[in-house]
Amino acid sequence: MGSLGFWRLAQADPGWIAAIDPDGVEYTGGELLSRANRLVHGLRELGLKAGDGICGLMPNGVEGLTLYLAALQAGWYYTPVNWHLTGPEIAYILADSEAKAFFAHDRYAVEAVRAAEEVEPERRFSFGEIDGFRPVADLTAGQPDSAPEDRTAGATMHYTSGTTGRPKGVRRALTGLDPDDSAELMTGLLALFGITPGPPNAHLVTSPNYHTAVTQFGGSALHMGHTLVYMDKWDPEETLRLCARYGVTNSHMVPTHFKRLLALPDEVKSKYDLSTLRWMIHAAAPCPVPVKWAMFEWWGDCVYEYYAATEGGGTLATPDGWKKHPGTVGTSWPISELLIVDDDHEPVPVGTPGTIYMKMGAGRFEYKGDPEKTAANRLRDFFTVGDIGYLNDEGYLFLCDRKADMIISGGTNIYPAEIENELMVHPKVADVAVFGIPDDEWGEQIKAVIEPMPGNDPGPELAAEILGTLEGRLSRMKWPKTVDFIEDMPREPNGKLLKRKLRDPYWEGRDRAI
């Protein structure tokens, strides 16, 4: 193979600026290489071997990147954990992933401590000080910064929530490849968009690194020799400032970002030189057609879109393809196939909506520990996340609706069943339904409809009391924004909730219920 891949690039040019933390501190490829190598040596001394897993509760930046790079050359699974989660939710992921080491940043100390009992004390490590955790410096002190022996490619294992409310790890078999060759293969993702390797390219990391796509696109950009520019918390003007300051050429965004950027005053928009932008890629939620046209008018033909899932496979809409077919999420990747089927799993004609199935090369995955869920979402070699869409006669995919209940807010998938389960335990709740309603900024916001137990007066006081019991049990991003009360929940005789009856009135007058 050629000369792409972080480790090759860092050895060839140790002075290459590989990453820039949110505080502006720059790190060379040589520094990152040394840090990752020392971490591998330290964890191997503790007994970690290929196939083991590590978890990181980390903000965006070089420290989390070091964990990722260590895992990818030691044959480990790396799971970045959503830092919005509460202690019990984190503990579930630590246990389910069978994490052999847990790394946490002191910013999330409170919930990290609550979760840590799932991991042996000598394998809990902190960046900064956390009670009951060993400083990472203890682990790496005295370790050589030379390349470890027996290097073998690791992988990320991200957790995707299931409709049961319990997250599932999306796990692929390790390839056994040399890490350098594996890293070079990863750059194929960006090559699909026509992205070129090497400086002076810079990739802006706009979203939390626990999202699959953020890790994949950032990691692939690094393996291409781009500089990663990290944002700690997304801000529209700061995005423009960083693009201008570091000559950003590519990024991964969600439509909520576009809406916030477009809302900036004209004098702010015109203050920054955005001439370096070449591949500004978005996904994760449908982008309203007028918003996308406005982005093209402002940024030019650098806005790319794709549709995919943690599980693999997808489509790509180039600027030209989207302009010819506004609203499309594109055509299938060269390494991916699409299949649209009806309820009997028979293919549907062009222009007819059906369930979208995808497959990607030979990259079969499993939901860790859940063969039933893995099998349920499969159709031969294809899988589905339950989205509904159709293909036009040129093979362009359009989404109509999604998996009946999933809420997408600000590009994050939120699963109502998990929220309903937590609300249902309240003694004053007789029945509950949670679903998404339109939100012009976030795409959707979370609405709860509650049937109170007899003798409880519906109103703001009862709503506040019920929501208050979610504290510490459910991360705030999953809390319903508003609560309505209902006398009788619409259910069929078999107990099936008719959620559409509740949801549809909120979506009236919208051109699509997504």
From TrEMBL:
InterPro entries reported in the protein's UniProt record: AMP-bd_C, AMP-bd_C_sf, AMP-binding_CS, AMP-dep_synth/lig_dom, ANL_N_sf
Stretches assigned to the AMP-dependent synthetase/ligase domain: 7-359
One Pfam family from the record: AMP-binding_C
UniProt entry tagged with the keyword Ligase: yes
Domain AMP-binding enzyme C-terminal: 418-496
Region: Disordered, residue numbers: 138-168
Organism superkingdom: Bacteria
GO terms for MF: medium-chain fatty acid-CoA ligase activity
Keyword line: Ligase
GO biological process, one term: fatty acid metabolic process
Record family assignment: Belongs to the ATP-dependent AMP-binding enzyme family.
Record protein name field: Acyl-CoA synthetase
Organism this protein belongs to: Planotetraspora silvatica
Highest classification ranks of the organism: Bacteria, Bacillati, Actinomycetota, Actinomycetes, Streptosporangiales
